[in-house]
Amino acid sequence: MQQVLITGGTGSVAGAIVERLLADPAVERIVIYSRDEHKQGDMMQRVAQSGTPFDFFLGDICDEEALFRALAGIDTVIHTAAMRLVPHAEANPAECHRINVGGANALTRAVGRSDVSKVVAISSDKAVAPSTIYGTTKFAMERILVDADKRQNARYSLVRYANVIDTRSSVAPLFLKQKESGVLTITDPDMTRFSIAKRDGVDLVMTAVNDGLGGDIFMPISPSYRVGDMAEAIAPEAEHRIIGSRPGEKMHEIMFSMVESPQVVKRGANYVFLPRTGRWDVEPYCEQTGATKLETLFEYGSGDNDDWLSVEDIRRVLRDEGMIA
């Protein structure tokens, strides 16, 4: 992993990945590929004194030729570019499909013409039994990259995780903002979510970069919390106003389904899903990696998890992430 390109490289998770890469002496150069010149300018200032060479490319993720030019000399690609806010995706389904599916196609074609050896892409729990256009496009992206893994010299691995607790797609920043008004809008207090901090997401990405064999989808084993408990942890004195769920919003997050379960193994602190359309079956993957088959088949959802965060646990997580004092 000497020269790394990050698509969507100015996003919040990508920014955390950059910080991790800056601490890795094996990283010789970082390339940021995105389409927001203002965010690139801000990042240029932040990394100016890092000592690591940076290049910045302005380009659309669907532009194969621009991607190909940016991939010159690159060993590893971390693909974070996506349209991911569910309400915006539902209101703009064609654009969501263009970016998330068209971008995956453009990336695999560009990588196939390059000397890239490893690609790691960020998927989502919403790709499991998708109920929104965003989830559907992430499901398609997974299949496109797993297929490319079989046909190219580059190895493609993915990570699948839920909403990161300290990013805009999570309910926590919304509640922190609403706290100032004295009213928190809650879809359903019994709705559950997996607890994934930004550093956990970065850890998972780096695990896939370093240990992925291609055609494997890494998923973290994480605790769950109830949305009502999150509201209580952030603003117990505020009014908690129930507004109902948004179109397509699931009551519980699902990291892998019962249908996928036969192709899931436990590898270290994570589960790994091996799509039947990919290069690996369960037995040889376990022999190669030391992973273990599931003793019983099950659906891994946030609603029936064995590990739960209490209200005080949630406050501790928020303090650890610097979101509350």
Question: In a nutshell, what does this entry contain?
Answer:
With 325 residues, the protein is α/β, with parallel strands linked by helices.
Question: Could you explain the architecture of this structure?
Answer:
The structure is a single chain. The chain has 325 residues and is of the alpha/beta class. It has a single domain, classed as 3-Layer(aba) Sandwich (Rossmann fold), CATH 3.40.50. The protein is built from eleven helices and 16 strands. The chain has helices spanning 12-22, 37-47, 64-70, 86-91, 93-112, 133-151, 171-178, 198-211, 227-234, 282-289, 311-320, and strands at residues 3-7, 29-34, 54-58, 76-79, 118-124, 155-161, 183-186, 192-194, 217-220, 224-226, 239-242, 254-256, 264-267, 270-273, 292-293, 300-301. The strands form four sheets. Strands 3-2-1-4-5-6-9-14-13-15 form a ten-stranded mixed β-sheet, with helices on both faces. A two-stranded parallel sheet has the order 7-11. Strands 8-10 form a two-stranded antiparallel ribbon. Helix 1 links the parallel strand 1 and strand 2 (29-34). The longest helix has 20 residues, at 93-112. It is globular, with a radius of gyration of 20 Å.
Describe the secondary-structure layout.
Elements: E1 3-7, H1 12-22, E2 29-34, H2 37-47, E3 54-58, H3 64-70, E4 76-79, H4 86-91, H5 93-112, E5 118-124, H6 133-151, E6 155-161, H7 171-178, E7 183-186, E8 192-194, H8 198-211, E9 217-220, E10 224-226, H9 227-234, E11 239-242, E12 254-256, E13 264-267, E14 270-273, H10 282-289, E15 292-293, E16 300-301, H11 311-320
Parallel strand pairs: 1-2, 1-4, 2-3, 4-5, 5-6, 6-9, 7-11
Antiparallel strand pairs: 8-10, 9-14, 12-16, 13-14, 13-15
